[in-house]
Amino acid sequence: MNSFESVRGYLQSMVSPLQYLATTPKQAIDWAVENLVTRRQLIEENQGFKTNELLYQEQLMQLRMLKKENSRLRSLLASPVRADAKKMVAEILSVDSDPYSHQVVINRGANDGVFEGQAVIDDQGIVGQVLHVGTISSRILLITDVTHAVPVRISRNGIRLVANGTGTIDRLTHNHVPHSTDVKVGDELVTSGLGGKYPEGYPVAKVSAVKQDESHPFAQVQSEPVARINRLRYLLLLWPEQPTKIFSSKDDLAALEESNNVGT
Amino acid sequence: MSAHNGIIIIFSLLVALMASIMPMPISADAFRPDWVLVVLLYWCLALPTKVNVITAWIMGFLLDVLLGSVLGLHAAAMALSVYIIAGNFQKIRNFSVWQQALIVGVISALYHLLVFWFQRFLTDVVFLPSYLYPVITTIILWPWAFLLLRKIRRHFKIK
Question: Does any CB of chain B come closer than 8 Å to the CB of residue A206?
């Protein structure tokens, strides 16, 4: 089976020039739209960015402090210390025109170190995972595809669910949820990190409907993905964190502090 | 000379492949005509010795790779649809363009249903009427594609 996947990888690399060619008109239009803006629009946009940056910087200061505190507390509790994951920005080449599957093609491939099963996010939350890798492009399966499911938990109370894709762009379903489960409309679902594909704690969806009809064996729960699946443009590829030992040692903490100091 | 002619056919097929994966707004995406099928059917009617079921299978296979579907799915559907036309090319050739357009519409509907059946067999997809919207645009596209490709065929004297 594995050798067949590599054949598929070769085929993917073989047709990627066609994909690059097919997106040229769209990229030309995008380029024109980006370049033909008025001075006033640019100034307004710039001001918006500046205010945003100020807000984010303030949050970043807090985050740095919290991160250090968290890692110190984790080491006190002898839990594994978390390290920062490697990330890479990718751009969407094409969105699938096939109505039966939800996939996109991105402009990163094996040359950039992309691997199969890698988690992909946008600025809002989880988007999907890498399905096939070519040399200069790869294919991503979105979380809304019928064949896809993400292990999630409710961030409010930690109850674990599985978010299944439905083939509809704005809906995920959750099967086998008992009636007694504490789920409410508006609950935020984040990745639970179980299953090992997705790193823990990234937002996936918001619960949009809960129907606790006793005539059905399970409660019917639906949610809406937080990532804007239908208007994706830039994506972030995540590399898994370093494998952690069961118990953290003082060396781990020292190494972490060192990397923090280097980063700041 | 014949090598030169073959390149024109391959080029038209590649353009059709590109048109079928070109990004489009979501509202228009459901109406995307079957470019590859239309171009294949034209060449199959005009030059059945050059473009046949095997060509159709290869184009369908490339479409599979481009769309990321299960390998062989579009290939099988494409080959079966083209087989029906290839078997009756002498009859269909004599029809007027609009009659041909209707037949192409039927073939396109068959193609989409075949793809749907294979998908249904593999995953639990449900049928939506929007899966057959491309049939309408394909019928509208056929006369224009027919006239354009005939002009190309006569201009380059492809035989």
Answer: no
